[in-house]
Amino acid sequence: MTPPLSPPSLLPLLLVAFNICFSLAASNSVYESFVQCLKTRSNSSDNISDIVYSHSNATYETVLEQYIRNARFNTSSTPKPVIIITPLTESHVSAAVICSNNIGFQLRIRSGGHDFEGVSYVSDQPFFILDMFNLRSISINMADQSVWVQSGATLGELYYRIWEESKVYGFPAGVCPTVGVGGHISGAGYGNMVRKYGLSVDYVVDAKIVDVNGNILDRKAMGEDLFWAIRGGGGASFGVILAFNIKLVDVPETVTVFKLERTLEQNATDVVYKWQSVAPTTDDNLFMRMLVQPVTLNKQKTIKISIMALYLGDVNSVVPLLAEDFPELGLVTEDCFEMSWIESALWWASFGKGTSPTVLLDRESYHVKFMKRKSDYVKTPISKDGLQWLWKKMIELEEPGLVFNPYGGKMNEIKETETPFPHRAGNLFKIQYSINWKDMGIEADKRSRSLVNRLHGYMTSFVSKNPRSAYLNYRDLDIGITKNWSYQEGKVYGESYFNGNFERLVDVKTVVDPHNFFRNEQSIPPRTIKAWNEKNEGSIPPSTSKAWNKSKPYVMIILFMAIGHII
Question: Where is the signal peptide (predicted)?
């Protein structure tokens, strides 16, 4: 006969029951309060409940998972939002900011979901997601070659709409068509025209943002300091980006692409060594990305390099150019393919020859995988001895790879203080560290992240120092996070991403969001927020005390409701 459960044995069951009931009660109560607030604050006559999803909504999981681009943050243990808001109008966004602040919940802002660390849709504190995918209009004015593009649009949609209007204009942004415009541009997104034209933010001439008070501001209304900050400083630290007004750039009717591969047995070391001096200094019309990957060929472990290139011109120009600048590469006419700029966008996104540009409108064409990314900047070439040592380490690790992206050209002409993105002149190339894996679970996650961290460690002597710089759009929480939203914590990762521009970003944040409503693990902190636990251990952080006072009545009601369910 099974003995009756003792009181200590009942405790875990009671805690589980409490957590379940608390979660359901909390979600329902907060949902009702939020929807009522949204109805009051919104100027729209739409049915507000149709754009707000709680756990009890049948399509909640579908909406949540639709724009999760990293499988690491789509597990049963991943914290989920209490509410997801999918605004249809600008007034919905404004009301969502006001109501989230009033109720006292964090607001995470998602445009495309490609944040490598998932901070646009994950938090370890109770939070809402403001999902911008419905706000994706694109309005093109060919009279002045400008475009108003809302933050929920994807790069693929933007490229397609530009191509509909003109075959001789483009925009210098990323090569992944499902990336959201809002996060990409506000984080200083770049692409394969970076050497010719610089960054996406270098062509932003206006913007619309919702501030912490729910005001909708354009460039004139927000002022030049805030306008500067959201062009590379990450918009989510300062407000909700509604749209950017961008200028288009000239592209020729015919461009050329090629991809060449070499192994160590095919002079890869010589090619990589020479690439470091050629890729950042050759004709500005040429961008040569290089992938470095450990592989096994014919049962032999080796290193394979792949050079993918875009040349803004025809094959008869690029082949003799590289014959002179880069004979080690051995490029011949047969390696090259001429096409239109929009076709090159498809080629870079790995779509096959003859694919219709309409595929760029497919927001679901992204294969979600477990991944980890890191970044570095290289200011002086790595020696051949250094490269050979690096190959040995990469072969030992077996899995992590590197992607080298050359700078130079236009990047050398723009001052490092022109935008928050400081990595301009003096940088030969940027490195992306990359590892993907298929297995679920904590052990697979730890193993894969350990491998890429070891490779990152091996590269220390070859990359920038004091600070060791990193790229915001390749977000890496290993650099540092803020738990208490203090200036000192923020400075650790802030100086890596922004170098000396971090201080100006802090000044802007202090003015526009002094209570730090817009925050995440690597957001810009206001200068007035101190590391509260250093002086007031156990108390509520200053940045959240205002929110706690607002939400305290809701939490107490929910607590009693949960206890009532258990009893």
Answer: 1-25
